[in-house]
Amino acid sequence: MNKDGIHQQKKDIGMYRIFLTYFVGLILLFFSFLFSLSVGAYQIDFVTVLASLFSNQETKEVLIIQDVRLPRAIIGILIGASLAIAGALMQGITRNPLASPQIFGVNAGASLVLVIIVILFPIFSQTTMVYFAFLGAAIGGLTVYALASPGGMNPVKLALAGITMHLFLTSIIEGLIIFHEESTEDVLFWLAGAIDGTDWGHVETILPWLIAGMILALLIAKPLTLLSLGDDVAKGLGQKIGWIRIASAMLVILLAGASVAVAGPIGFVGLIIPHIARKLVGVDYIHVIPCSALLGAVLLVSADVLSRFISFPSESPVGIVTALIGGPYFLYLARKGGK
Amino acid sequence: MKKSFFVLIGILIFFLAACGTENEGTNDNENQGSAENSDDARVIEHEMGSTKIKGQPENIVALEFSYVDALASLGISPVGIADDDDENRIIAPIKEKIGDYTSVGTRKQPSLEVISSLQPDLIIADLQRHKDIYDQLSDIAPTIVLSSLSADYEEILSSFETVSEAVGKKEEGQEILKEHKKRMEELRAQVPEDETRTVMPAVVTADAVYAHNFESYTGSLLESIGLKNAIQDGDDRYNKINLEQVVQFNPDVMFLMESGEQTIIDDWEDKPLWQEVNANQNDALYSVDRNMWSRFRGLISSEKILESAINHLYNQ
Fold it and tell me: How far apart are the CA of B233 and the nearest CA of chain A, in angstroms?
């Protein structure tokens, strides 16, 4: 009787903690969203921001918020969430704390294909580019997987394979840039990961993909949790682990590929957010996934706001800020021997 | 035993080869030095120290466009130019003056082999781009390093003076500078006293606007004849900006250096926010040549830029 009572108590505290995390996360998201709309070369106060969101007038403030900042903030939320989910999925199926679209060459692969298309065949529309991003993401991810798995994939092998892929792809990209100087400025900026200059067109392009990806990720959460307990356990419980891995990998390609197609390879979100999420809500992926999405969105939108101050009033790539935040945290994780 | 013996021989051979090359180098320089007995030697102070130059250099390699401009003004044709592998970057008025030359590659990474094959007697390099290869360039020929990439209008003028001194045409250089300043006065006179419009020279690509502020070369040049720049502060001379910032700076006139067929300005045409920008409302969006307005940075090109600006602003 007592044992059950304690067990129930623990469960209650657990749920309490989870809901608290969501609650705080949503508040943080709300405020970073607000800052994203108000901060910039043209400073607009919160009250005007809120009033402008639904206004029909065509004043400068309203236009800036509705046409420039709102789509940018929404993209920040979508991509931040997607990259974080992608990272969570990867860490789940590989049981490797380093797994993320960046380390796995997914970002690099998508970037390479996109840079090739933009420089050599700049005739495709935004929507078509997303398919190329998927192709590149798949090539990058599969190559690293193939390099790292023989003999069992451990974090060290994964990191080495991932970095090799990243450097290889970077060198090809650099070569392309040197021989096509006109595109250099734009491409270099984009390669650091950037969401400034995005508009409603970009939102339209990736919204369906990312929403679909997020919903599917939630559906795969339960099997993923079982998988993370160990292959044997999962098999014993009747899970088709091969299919779970393939489905998750495809979701990663979907989420990361679409994100890179619009914003370039933004790093560290997919790597560190799942760690934080797991610390806060535990190891059940039915919570890790939405929590990662929430925290990823907060991180990217906040990073975007911060990036506006690096070389005010010019724009700076948001990838710089995520690297500045993520780098040290990653080192801290490495020293702790992360989980 | 045998293996390590061969390894030792191998290392010795490498050593001798390396030493041999160095010696050759110094020997050559010494020979050159003693051959030129003229007392027409001068020491030129430049960004990376001082270089001794004898006589009047005839085979000059210019590693930035502003030096080509300077040499052309002095009536000298450089034998080699770092033209980014594209001879179309040399603007017409200067091309006419200098005729043929050999391309030594990109300004970012000029080919040392091609440069040395031209057997130059003077190399003019840029501080920001070439400071790391200064030693190698000095081995090929006397090299002076000036500021081109990061220079504003005033610095370009003083670089011109240094170049004229280096080629042994100091007095001629002063004359040309005087002529140039006179021409600038004439151009300044064509700008009305009460001109209050702000201008924004900017490179526009498919994705962004890179605006030149008041301290940039183009910006400072326009300011010098009374055309105020739309961006009056900030640490960066070149600012990557979006529609939002263009609206904030709200230039009355924009000089667009287009990079590529399709630029972001085309994307903005339908946006109501773009209609808020003065330059758009006044129909004061002028396409200008990037080579002339931004890359060339020299006396001839600065006169041409101002003529072009005045033409757009007052004669249309």
Answer: 9
